[in-house]
Amino acid sequence: MEGLSQELVTIIAAAIALAAVIVPGVRSLRREIGALRGEIGALRGEFRNDLAVFREEMRGELSAFEEEVRGEFSSLRADVSELRERMARVEGLFEGFTRSEPGLRAGSA
């Protein structure tokens, strides 16, 4: 039995030695993991803030672009309206020209 108890003591001593080496490493890993979680949380907060700023900038840019497009459409509508009026005048001139031409022939005959 003495041999078994010596082996048992050796096994227990080896387990204690391993625990003495492993436990501080695990504690160190836990601290590092905690620090990484803190850094990730900070990065997440920065990302959210940057994303919010980006969204606001994009809203401003989109709003400015929308106003520019509205102005261009308004200008385009005014140009089309002006062209309609000019075309109506030209059509009126042609209509008057084609109507008066037969009258001139009838009067000269």
Task: Report a brief summary of the structure.
The protein has 109 residues and is mainly alpha-helical. It has 1 helix and no strands.
If you had to describe this structure to a student in words, what would you say it looks like?
The chain has 109 residues and is mainly alpha-helical. The protein is built from one helix and no strands. The protein has one helix spanning 2-108. The longest helix is centred in the middle third of the chain and has 107 residues, at 2-108. The relative contact order is 0.03. The mean pLDDT is 88.
Return the structural class.
mainly alpha
Radius of gyration: 46 Å
Tally of helical runs: 1
DSSP strand count: 0
Protein topology:
Elements: H1 2-108
Kindly list the characteristics that best describe this protein.
single chain; 109 residues; mainly alpha; 1 helix; 0% strand; rod-shaped
